[in-house]
Design brief:
The protein is mainly beta. Helix content is 12%, strand content 36%.
Length: 300
Amino acid sequence: MQRVASWILCAAVASAAAAQSSVTQIDAIVCERAHARVTSDHAATATTTPTLFWRGDVVQRAQWNVTLGTRRVANRLIIVRMPIDRVRFSLEIAREGATLLPWSLAAAPADAAVAVNAGQFTDDGPWGWVVHRQREQQAPGAGPLAGAFIVDSAGNAQILTSTEIAAWRTPLRAVEAVQSYPMLLVGDGRVPNELCRDASGIDREHRDARLAIGITRDAHVLLVLSRFQAPGGSITSVPIGPTTPEMAEILRRLGADRAMMLDGGLSAQMLVRTSRDTVRYEGWRNVPLALVARLRDSHR
Protein backbone atom coordinates (compact mmCIF):
# COMPACT_ATOMS: atom_id res chain seq x y z
CA MET A 1 0.00 0.00 0.00
CA GLN A 2 2.85 2.34 0.87
CA ARG A 3 4.50 1.59 -2.47
CA VAL A 4 1.27 2.34 -4.32
CA ALA A 5 0.89 5.67 -2.48
CA SER A 6 4.50 6.51 -3.27
CA TRP A 7 3.98 5.66 -6.95
CA ILE A 8 0.85 7.82 -7.13
CA LEU A 9 2.69 10.74 -5.57
CA CYS A 10 5.61 10.40 -8.01
CA ALA A 11 3.21 10.16 -10.95
CA ALA A 12 1.38 13.31 -9.80
CA VAL A 13 4.63 15.23 -9.47
CA ALA A 14 5.81 14.04 -12.89
CA SER A 15 2.47 14.99 -14.45
CA ALA A 16 2.59 18.47 -12.91
CA ALA A 17 6.18 18.93 -14.07
CA ALA A 18 5.24 17.85 -17.59
CA ALA A 19 2.32 20.30 -17.66
CA GLN A 20 4.60 23.03 -16.38
CA SER A 21 7.32 22.40 -18.95
CA SER A 22 5.15 21.70 -22.03
CA VAL A 23 5.09 24.41 -24.67
CA THR A 24 1.97 25.57 -26.55
CA GLN A 25 2.02 27.28 -29.92
CA ILE A 26 -0.13 30.44 -29.95
CA ASP A 27 -1.23 32.21 -33.12
CA ALA A 28 -3.44 35.24 -33.60
CA ILE A 29 -7.10 34.82 -32.81
CA VAL A 30 -9.13 34.45 -35.99
CA CYS A 31 -11.99 36.83 -36.78
CA GLU A 32 -14.72 35.04 -38.67
CA ARG A 33 -18.16 36.65 -38.53
CA ALA A 34 -19.35 39.78 -36.80
CA HIS A 35 -21.59 38.01 -34.28
CA ALA A 36 -20.20 34.50 -34.37
CA ARG A 37 -18.17 32.95 -31.65
CA VAL A 38 -14.45 33.22 -32.36
CA THR A 39 -12.54 30.13 -33.38
CA SER A 40 -8.87 29.56 -34.07
CA ASP A 41 -7.26 28.13 -37.18
CA HIS A 42 -5.98 25.21 -35.09
CA ALA A 43 -7.77 21.93 -34.76
CA ALA A 44 -10.23 21.79 -31.87
CA THR A 45 -7.92 19.50 -29.91
CA ALA A 46 -5.18 22.15 -30.05
CA THR A 47 -7.30 24.99 -28.70
CA THR A 48 -8.65 23.52 -25.51
CA THR A 49 -7.92 25.08 -22.14
CA PRO A 50 -4.31 24.28 -21.21
CA THR A 51 -3.50 21.91 -18.37
CA LEU A 52 -1.71 24.08 -15.82
CA PHE A 53 -0.18 23.39 -12.42
CA TRP A 54 -1.82 25.86 -10.03
CA ARG A 55 -0.19 26.97 -6.77
CA GLY A 56 -2.19 28.50 -3.94
CA ASP A 57 -5.70 28.21 -2.53
CA VAL A 58 -7.99 31.23 -3.02
CA VAL A 59 -5.47 33.11 -5.15
CA GLN A 60 -3.80 30.70 -7.54
CA ARG A 61 -0.76 31.18 -9.73
CA ALA A 62 0.43 29.15 -12.72
CA GLN A 63 2.97 29.45 -15.52
CA TRP A 64 2.40 28.57 -19.15
CA ASN A 65 5.26 28.26 -21.63
CA VAL A 66 4.24 29.31 -25.13
CA THR A 67 5.74 30.07 -28.51
CA LEU A 68 4.22 32.92 -30.46
CA GLY A 69 3.46 33.35 -34.14
CA THR A 70 5.37 32.08 -37.15
CA ARG A 71 8.72 32.98 -35.58
CA ARG A 72 7.85 30.97 -32.46
CA VAL A 73 8.96 33.64 -30.02
CA ALA A 74 9.40 31.97 -26.63
CA ASN A 75 7.43 33.49 -23.75
CA ARG A 76 6.33 32.43 -20.31
CA LEU A 77 2.89 33.54 -19.18
CA ILE A 78 2.31 34.15 -15.48
CA ILE A 79 -1.37 33.57 -14.81
CA VAL A 80 -3.30 34.44 -11.67
CA ARG A 81 -6.81 33.13 -11.06
CA MET A 82 -9.11 34.13 -8.19
CA PRO A 83 -12.87 33.77 -7.54
CA ILE A 84 -14.74 37.08 -7.60
CA ASP A 85 -16.74 36.27 -4.46
CA ARG A 86 -13.61 35.61 -2.35
CA VAL A 87 -11.51 38.67 -3.13
CA ARG A 88 -12.14 42.41 -3.13
CA PHE A 89 -10.56 44.77 -5.64
CA SER A 90 -9.61 48.41 -5.19
CA LEU A 91 -7.42 51.00 -6.82
CA GLU A 92 -4.28 52.45 -5.29
CA ILE A 93 -3.47 55.98 -6.46
CA ALA A 94 0.05 57.16 -5.70
CA ARG A 95 -0.07 60.88 -5.01
CA GLU A 96 0.82 63.63 -2.60
CA GLY A 97 -1.98 66.15 -2.52
CA ALA A 98 -2.88 66.76 -6.17
CA THR A 99 0.50 65.54 -7.44
CA LEU A 100 0.66 62.05 -8.90
CA LEU A 101 3.63 59.98 -7.79
CA PRO A 102 5.21 56.84 -9.22
CA TRP A 103 3.82 53.55 -7.90
CA SER A 104 5.78 50.31 -7.85
CA LEU A 105 5.42 46.88 -6.28
CA ALA A 106 7.36 48.15 -3.27
CA ALA A 107 4.33 50.33 -2.45
CA ALA A 108 1.86 47.44 -2.54
CA PRO A 109 -0.16 47.16 0.70
CA ALA A 110 0.97 44.50 3.16
CA ASP A 111 -2.42 42.76 2.90
CA ALA A 112 -2.48 42.72 -0.91
CA ALA A 113 -2.92 39.23 -2.33
CA VAL A 114 -2.29 40.59 -5.84
CA ALA A 115 -1.10 43.96 -7.09
CA VAL A 116 -0.56 45.10 -10.68
CA ASN A 117 -0.22 48.37 -12.54
CA ALA A 118 -3.62 49.40 -13.88
CA GLY A 119 -5.13 51.14 -16.89
CA GLN A 120 -3.27 53.05 -19.58
CA PHE A 121 -1.25 56.23 -19.19
CA THR A 122 -0.28 59.46 -20.89
CA ASP A 123 2.46 61.89 -19.92
CA ASP A 124 -0.06 63.61 -17.63
CA GLY A 125 -1.23 60.50 -15.77
CA PRO A 126 -3.95 57.84 -16.14
CA TRP A 127 -5.95 57.77 -19.35
CA GLY A 128 -9.72 57.58 -19.23
CA TRP A 129 -12.25 56.75 -16.55
CA VAL A 130 -11.07 56.45 -12.96
CA VAL A 131 -13.39 55.94 -9.96
CA HIS A 132 -12.01 55.50 -6.46
CA ARG A 133 -14.11 54.99 -3.33
CA GLN A 134 -17.24 55.82 -5.35
CA ARG A 135 -15.90 59.22 -6.40
CA GLU A 136 -15.20 59.88 -10.05
CA GLN A 137 -11.61 61.06 -10.34
CA GLN A 138 -11.57 61.31 -14.11
CA ALA A 139 -14.14 61.15 -16.91
CA PRO A 140 -14.16 58.31 -19.46
CA GLY A 141 -12.05 58.44 -22.58
CA ALA A 142 -13.58 57.75 -25.98
CA GLY A 143 -12.94 54.81 -28.27
CA PRO A 144 -14.80 51.70 -29.47
CA LEU A 145 -12.11 49.38 -28.05
CA ALA A 146 -11.95 51.08 -24.66
CA GLY A 147 -13.37 49.03 -21.80
CA ALA A 148 -13.44 49.35 -18.02
CA PHE A 149 -12.84 47.07 -15.06
CA ILE A 150 -15.33 48.00 -12.35
CA VAL A 151 -16.26 46.95 -8.82
CA ASP A 152 -19.81 47.44 -7.52
CA SER A 153 -21.02 48.13 -3.97
CA ALA A 154 -21.19 44.39 -3.21
CA GLY A 155 -17.55 44.00 -4.17
CA ASN A 156 -18.32 42.15 -7.39
CA ALA A 157 -16.07 42.81 -10.38
CA GLN A 158 -16.89 42.92 -14.06
CA ILE A 159 -15.56 44.26 -17.34
CA LEU A 160 -17.69 46.76 -19.28
CA THR A 161 -17.55 47.53 -22.98
CA SER A 162 -17.39 51.15 -24.12
CA THR A 163 -21.15 51.30 -24.72
CA GLU A 164 -21.96 50.07 -21.18
CA ILE A 165 -19.96 52.66 -19.23
CA ALA A 166 -22.55 55.46 -19.39
CA ALA A 167 -25.15 53.39 -17.51
CA TRP A 168 -22.72 52.99 -14.61
CA ARG A 169 -21.98 56.74 -14.42
CA THR A 170 -25.51 58.12 -14.15
CA PRO A 171 -26.13 57.45 -11.37
CA LEU A 172 -22.62 56.45 -10.35
CA ARG A 173 -22.86 52.79 -9.36
CA ALA A 174 -19.19 51.84 -9.55
CA VAL A 175 -17.19 51.97 -6.31
CA GLU A 176 -13.92 51.44 -8.18
CA ALA A 177 -13.32 51.70 -11.92
CA VAL A 178 -10.39 51.94 -14.27
CA GLN A 179 -10.62 52.28 -18.02
CA SER A 180 -8.18 50.66 -20.41
CA TYR A 181 -7.79 49.45 -24.00
CA PRO A 182 -8.03 47.57 -26.19
CA MET A 183 -10.80 45.15 -25.36
CA LEU A 184 -9.69 41.64 -26.32
CA LEU A 185 -12.94 39.72 -25.80
CA VAL A 186 -16.40 41.26 -25.50
CA GLY A 187 -18.62 38.44 -24.27
CA ASP A 188 -18.92 34.71 -24.89
CA GLY A 189 -15.22 34.73 -25.81
CA ARG A 190 -15.83 36.84 -28.94
CA VAL A 191 -13.21 39.18 -30.34
CA PRO A 192 -14.49 42.77 -30.90
CA ASN A 193 -15.18 43.58 -34.53
CA GLU A 194 -13.02 46.71 -34.36
CA LEU A 195 -9.95 44.69 -33.41
CA CYS A 196 -10.26 42.78 -36.68
CA ARG A 197 -10.06 45.86 -38.88
CA ASP A 198 -6.94 47.50 -40.26
CA ALA A 199 -8.51 50.86 -39.41
CA SER A 200 -8.77 50.01 -35.70
CA GLY A 201 -5.67 52.08 -34.82
CA ILE A 202 -4.15 48.99 -33.15
CA ASP A 203 -0.85 47.70 -34.49
CA ARG A 204 -1.79 44.05 -34.71
CA GLU A 205 1.75 42.90 -35.51
CA HIS A 206 3.57 44.70 -32.67
CA ARG A 207 5.18 42.52 -30.00
CA ASP A 208 5.51 43.76 -26.44
CA ALA A 209 5.41 42.65 -22.84
CA ARG A 210 1.72 42.31 -22.02
CA LEU A 211 -0.57 42.52 -19.02
CA ALA A 212 -4.26 41.68 -19.41
CA ILE A 213 -7.28 41.09 -17.23
CA GLY A 214 -10.22 38.82 -17.93
CA ILE A 215 -13.33 37.41 -16.31
CA THR A 216 -14.32 33.80 -16.89
CA ARG A 217 -17.73 32.26 -17.29
CA ASP A 218 -17.38 30.65 -13.87
CA ALA A 219 -16.82 34.05 -12.18
CA HIS A 220 -13.06 34.11 -11.76
CA VAL A 221 -10.79 37.04 -12.47
CA LEU A 222 -7.74 36.24 -14.57
CA LEU A 223 -4.56 38.29 -14.74
CA VAL A 224 -1.99 37.36 -17.37
CA LEU A 225 1.53 38.78 -17.53
CA SER A 226 3.95 37.85 -20.32
CA ARG A 227 7.71 37.49 -19.90
CA PHE A 228 10.22 36.91 -22.68
CA GLN A 229 11.97 33.57 -22.35
CA ALA A 230 15.64 33.84 -23.24
CA PRO A 231 17.68 30.92 -24.65
CA GLY A 232 18.38 28.57 -21.78
CA GLY A 233 14.94 29.06 -20.25
CA SER A 234 15.45 32.11 -18.04
CA ILE A 235 12.69 34.71 -18.14
CA THR A 236 13.34 38.44 -18.45
CA SER A 237 11.33 41.65 -18.54
CA VAL A 238 12.64 42.46 -22.04
CA PRO A 239 9.50 43.81 -23.77
CA ILE A 240 9.10 41.14 -26.43
CA GLY A 241 5.84 39.27 -26.14
CA PRO A 242 2.46 38.54 -27.72
CA THR A 243 0.77 40.67 -30.33
CA THR A 244 -2.67 41.98 -29.40
CA PRO A 245 -4.51 39.27 -31.42
CA GLU A 246 -2.31 36.60 -29.84
CA MET A 247 -3.16 37.97 -26.39
CA ALA A 248 -6.85 37.69 -27.28
CA GLU A 249 -6.30 34.05 -28.20
CA ILE A 250 -4.47 33.40 -24.92
CA LEU A 251 -7.33 34.82 -22.83
CA ARG A 252 -9.87 32.87 -24.89
CA ARG A 253 -8.03 29.61 -24.27
CA LEU A 254 -7.91 30.36 -20.55
CA GLY A 255 -11.69 30.54 -20.54
CA ALA A 256 -12.23 34.31 -20.42
CA ASP A 257 -15.68 35.57 -21.36
CA ARG A 258 -14.50 39.19 -21.48
CA ALA A 259 -10.97 40.54 -21.38
CA MET A 260 -9.00 43.72 -21.95
CA MET A 261 -5.41 44.83 -21.98
CA LEU A 262 -3.82 46.81 -19.16
CA ASP A 263 -0.66 48.86 -19.60
CA GLY A 264 2.12 46.55 -20.68
CA GLY A 265 5.59 47.18 -22.04
CA LEU A 266 8.02 48.61 -19.53
CA SER A 267 5.18 49.27 -17.03
CA ALA A 268 4.01 45.66 -16.69
CA GLN A 269 4.53 44.45 -13.12
CA MET A 270 2.81 42.03 -10.77
CA LEU A 271 2.97 40.91 -7.15
CA VAL A 272 1.28 37.67 -6.07
CA ARG A 273 0.94 36.39 -2.50
CA THR A 274 -0.50 32.91 -2.17
CA SER A 275 -0.76 30.65 0.83
CA ARG A 276 2.59 29.17 -0.24
CA ASP A 277 4.82 32.06 -1.30
CA THR A 278 5.19 35.63 -2.56
CA VAL A 279 6.56 36.42 -6.00
CA ARG A 280 7.30 39.74 -7.69
CA TYR A 281 7.63 40.42 -11.38
CA GLU A 282 9.14 43.89 -11.54
CA GLY A 283 8.59 46.47 -14.26
CA TRP A 284 11.01 49.06 -15.56
CA ARG A 285 8.67 52.04 -15.40
CA ASN A 286 6.55 53.06 -12.42
CA VAL A 287 3.03 54.40 -12.91
CA PRO A 288 0.64 56.28 -10.59
CA LEU A 289 -2.21 53.78 -10.56
CA ALA A 290 -2.45 50.17 -9.37
CA LEU A 291 -5.13 47.52 -9.02
CA VAL A 292 -5.02 45.55 -5.77
CA ALA A 293 -6.88 42.40 -4.75
CA ARG A 294 -7.34 41.53 -1.07
CA LEU A 295 -8.91 38.44 0.42
CA ARG A 296 -12.37 39.07 1.81
CA ASP A 297 -12.51 38.84 5.60
CA SER A 298 -14.07 35.40 5.68
CA HIS A 299 -11.24 33.96 3.57
CA ARG A 300 -8.17 35.37 5.32
